[in-house]
């Protein structure tokens, strides 16, 4: 977006940006100097204005797990983020992108929240995770789907909306909005903006407890933007768009996995105007750096019981398949080595 705006302001022909994006999408070009289709003078001007590299992120480290690749990126300013690609045996790839370096919301199950907010990512930095030549250089196709489930609260970053515009722009990434998922703990004003401006984007709302006081201990933003307010927004959205809405439920042993929780979650869904359009995705807790020490994963049997209990009550529910826990790439585990580099007590 920064380069496109600059080219427009300087009066460059519109096809020059298309040539640049074609090189970015279809080659391993990393610097403006590599894009030989552009005039030499324009390549030199862009390099002087934006630095030598086309994109804003540099890969620092790559980790591989079963069906998963996690890349640690650094921005031009030194902020670090992580991006995860999951490779499914059915033949498609899904990318989990970050929207912030760190996160300021302090959710007690999440390593990113323990980092604190370093800064928001720009729209270009968000889109660069998807478009980065690292993927084509390693022989990977562009992802079939992209989820804003990496580091940060996507709806707390105002640049999210420009990033969605870039990713769905036919002249840029050209992705279908239905292939994009925004996950949120519930920033209600921006959730309302999201469903108005990007109604075809898939939305996942983190619930994690149906009881307000307990949810506030898990997700402190509950005190500012209650779950009920966010559900009302999604209720109207589902009725108007007929789009399925996902409710994420992180199951923590002895905390939110009781039969009373199960019954209350089912009732939350049944009270929707179109309950058949709401789907509960149950996630087994992953041990995460910086999370509450007493949090533990429930047994696989309890997860299945919870899912089956929801189904028995007429609620659409599944257990989310998770990949990458062995390399800290699963739900709630990303921290871009900020916690690993933090000083310990007494040092």
What integer is the average pLDDT? 90
Q: What is the string of helix and strand elements?
A: HHHEEEEEHEHHEHEHEHHEHEHEH
Share of β-strand residues: 15-25%
Helix content: 25-40%
> Roughly how many Å is the radius of gyration?
21 Å
* CATH fold type of the largest domain: TIM Barrel
Instruction: Indicate how many domains the architecture comprises.
Output: 2
Shape: globular
Uncertain regions spanning at least 5 consecutive residues: 342-347
Number of strands: 12
How would you characterize this protein structure?
This protein has 347 residues and is α/β, with parallel strands linked by helices. It folds into two domains: 1-54, DNA polymerase, domain 1, CATH 1.10.150; 56-341, Alpha-Beta Barrel (TIM Barrel), CATH 3.20.20.70. It has 13 helices and twelve strands. α5 (123-131) packs parallel to α7. Mean pLDDT is 90; it is low at 342-347.
Please give a handful of descriptors for the protein shown.
347 residues; two-stranded antiparallel sheet; disordered C terminus; 20% strand; 13 helices; 2 domains; alpha/beta; ten-stranded mixed beta sheet; TIM Barrel; DNA polymerase, domain 1; single chain
């Amino acid at each position: 977006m920064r380069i496109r705006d600059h080219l427009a302001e300087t009066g460059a022909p519109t096809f020059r940006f298309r040539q640049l994006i074609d090189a970015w999408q279809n080659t391993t070009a990393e610097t403006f100097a590599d894009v030989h289709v552009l005039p030499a003078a324009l390549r030199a001007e862009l390099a002087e204005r934006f630095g030598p590299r086309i994109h804003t992120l540099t890969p620092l480290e790559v980790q591989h797990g079963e069906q998963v690749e996690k890349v640690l990126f650094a921005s031009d300013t030194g902020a670090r983020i992580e991006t995860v690609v999951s490779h499914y045996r059915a033949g498609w790839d899904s990318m989990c992108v970050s929207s912030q370096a760190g996160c300021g919301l302090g959710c007690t199950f999440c390593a990113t929240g323990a980092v604190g907010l370093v800064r928001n990512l720009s729209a270009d930095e968000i889109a660069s995770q998807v478009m980065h030549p690292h993927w084509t250089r390693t022989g990977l196709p562009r992802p079939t789907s992209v989820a804003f489930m990496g580091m940060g609260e996507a709806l707390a970053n105002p640049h999210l909306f420009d990033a969605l515009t870039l990713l769905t722009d036919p002249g840029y990434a050209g992705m279908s909005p239905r292939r994009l998922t925004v996950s949120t703990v519930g920033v209600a004003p921006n959730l309302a903006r999201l469903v108005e401006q990007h109604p075809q984007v898939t939305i996942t709302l983190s619930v994690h407890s149906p009881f307000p006081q307990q949810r506030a201990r898990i997700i402190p933003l509950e005190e500012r933007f209650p779950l009920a307010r966010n559900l009302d927004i999604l209720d109207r959205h589902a009725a108007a768009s007929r789009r399925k809405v996902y409710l994420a439920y992180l199951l923590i042993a002895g905390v939110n996995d009781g039969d009373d929780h199960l019954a209350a979650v089912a009732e939350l869904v049944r009270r929707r105007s179109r309950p058949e359009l709401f789907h509960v995705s149950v996630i087994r807790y992953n041990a995460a750096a910086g999370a509450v020490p007493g949090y533990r994963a429930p047994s696989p049997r309890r997860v299945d019981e919870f899912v089956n209990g929801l189904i028995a009550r007429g609620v659409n529910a599944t257990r989310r398949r998770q990949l990458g826990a062995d390399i800290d790439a699963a739900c709630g585990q990303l921290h871009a080595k900020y916690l690993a580099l933090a000083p310990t007590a007494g040092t």
